Amino acid sequence: MLYRFLILVLISMLFLTSTVFSDTTYVSGDVSGIWEASGSPYLVNGEIHVPTDSSLRIMPGCSVIFQGHYKFCVDSNAVLKAIGNEIDSIIFTAVDTNLTDSSGGHHGIRFYYSSESCTLSYCIIEYGNACEDYYPDCHGGGISCYLTSLIIANCRIEKNRANWCGGGFASLGGGTPIIERTCFVNNYAQKGGGIYCLGELNCQYCSISNNVAIYWGGGIYCWHSSLTLEYSTIQNNLTQSGGGVYSDYSNIILSANIISSNNSNSGGGVLCMNSDCTIIDNVFSNNNVDGGTGGGIMLYGTTSTIDGNTITFNFALRGGGIDCNYSNGNITENTITDNIGYLHGGGGISCNFDSEFSIENNTVIRNVAEGYYGGGGISFRGSDPIISKNIIKYNLAPKGGGVYASFSKAKITNNIIAGNSSTYGGGIYCYLDSDIILINNNIINNIADSIGGAICCEKYSDPVTFNNIFYNNSAEIANEAFLGLNSYDSTYYCTLFISCSVIDSNDCVISPGSAIIRGVGNINLNPFFADTLFHLSEDSPCIDAGAEFAISPWGDTVWAPTEDFEGGFRPFGLSWDIGADEYGTDFVFETPQIKPENLTIYAYPNPFNGSISIEIDCVRAIGQSPPQIEIYDINGRLVFTDEPIQGIGFRSFFPKTPRQRCSYDRLEAYPYKVSGEAEPIHSSKHPAIHSVYTWTPDPSLPSGVYFIRASTKPLTASRKVLYLK
Prior knowledge:
It contains one helix and 76 strands. By secondary structure, the chain is mainly β.
């Protein structure tokens, strides 16, 4: 009986073994056709090729397991379609998960001259290892493509390695790969820990995180390429230069991304080298640079547009928010707050070495510059930027709490420089032949612990200033202006020319050899501001007290701006006003004053600190409903609607990847209480086409950027406003 029992057990085990392995398929050499889930897992025990002009389709639920360090090659004009779904991913993995510089893993999926129909969707690609020492097999640990317009969507590419470039993915040029809704996590390379781009590459809605590159581009490395990266998150990547993105001799567009918590020795968030860079509507936060410059963004030899970004809590030796070197372009409409330049200055923005930028309409608040150099808000050395219409407040530095200038002839117009603090030069510090031009600024409430509450000048600096308000600044010595710091002989004299300005001459101190040359029209009176944004009241002595131009003692003619800090036209009245505000022109036009075809929004004053008037012009058909007003914060959260209902907001959205292994939620609605009040003021200027509202934000709402949206089908319009408590 025992013998018969053992025979039955043996037969049962053989049957079970046959059942377990009946679905296993061994593959090597040329492959084509269809791989069904019923044949999975597919065990790769040799290099495989989808041959020229052939195709292979891998169905949902398949697992492709490499038994050794083999390539998966898609040859000339061949097609690979590995398309899973949300429930059943396709997995490419390896038996040996110990990746080294010479062994382990598999050798990746490699597309060379492949068909434009190639697609990877809902795939997990892990433990690829491009461990060869020669091109191109040292690139693209998980995936590489050359002369192929590959589509990668809804994939997770993780724990791959390359000896040289592109730990997760390498585009080697010649095609236009598209990557959407894909995660690159924990990949490693010498350059481009997550992605390497040579040529053209378009990425949207991706997550690129926790990747490592030894040299450049912890998240992405671009070289002689054209990259468009939108609606993506780049975070927690690590490298030597360019923690999130490194661009070299490339043309890159970064739009609406979150670039945060990356670490490097220079360019914590993004480093652009010899490139053309368009960086718009991104959030740069908590990026860290150890020993180098550019906590959020570093530019070197670039032409750049940096517009509409929020740059906050970044940290670097110089240029906590932005560091510019040998570069030019525009830095506009950014919110730059709480950044630190911990040794060489420029807490918010640093421009150096012939960097010629227009720095306009930015909010630069609570940034810190530490160490010997200064410029808590903005620092420029050996550069001549144009700085206009900025709010530079509550910044801190040892020299130049608001602005630090060294060897510069910067033109500074229509700015509010207020509430900044330093040891020398609470508002502005000029050093070493800085002949800056100051026109129509409000330099107010700045504090210097030692010398020069408003402005301090040292070593050959000869500023020209007119139409400015210097008021209520304070220092131990010289509440307003100090000339010739540490320069008590004529060798280092400084000269300040001041005309048509509000200033108290008794609060100015001049060291031997230096001089203040007073032109016409200076007054020592209270400017009488209407609010904390320093608009002039109707009784202000600054109204019509300025000048259209001034002629400096050196024979130069300097002209006043034709707009004020909110875009209102100058002069409004008999002459130019003194200060940043032109009384009576509080309308703000953020775009050229050409109305959209049927719907226009105006908002004033802007910035505002109590309430704001919202004016809607709408030409609409008979019977069409009036415009609905909605106001959103910078994160897209609805904070006010003119309808008395609960609001619905949206979180940042990134669809879940295979097996829900990414850390992002889907587009998800959630309710909350709408804040604020709006009261129609009138609606009869033109019957049925003109409305004006006043919005008073709820007290719980913080300072910051808000977006006003008006809509009446099929028309929409929007306007950005700045709320400062």
